[in-house]
Amino acid sequence: MTPPEAPMDGSAKPGELPPAVSVCAPAQLTVLSKRSDFLKAARARRQPAPSMLVQARRRVPGEAEGIRVGFTCSKKVGNAVARNRAKRRLREIARRVLPEIGHDGWDYVLIGKPGDTAARPFDMLENDLRKALIKLHSPKS
Fold first, then answer.
1. Which residue stretches belong to region Disordered (predicted)?
2. Beta bridge partners of 72
């Protein structure tokens, strides 16, 4: 899939600016930024995956709208460059997967694992998140 700012037919004119907003994202994801939201998610459900840990919690009614997601990587993942790379990858899979599988009214926190998050092939990383979300939202047996 080609991004909107890079047409395949080469019809972009020199000096033409790319669109200000990506037209690819079907739903808006709100990014968690408050520590208290991360702590609430840490006390709720969690699902390990080969390349990440997914924490999820259902918000109380009226707390916020839509799907909210947070990303974190500890220093065990590596230096700042390695942590940022892992978080970029987590952000991209969240952008692709959560609008389609995530539930409205839930908070999700994706936690990177040392080595695995940055080194795992991207399609496998995406499948890991899909499987983790399906397990998180399945009724407990």
1. 1-20
2. 111
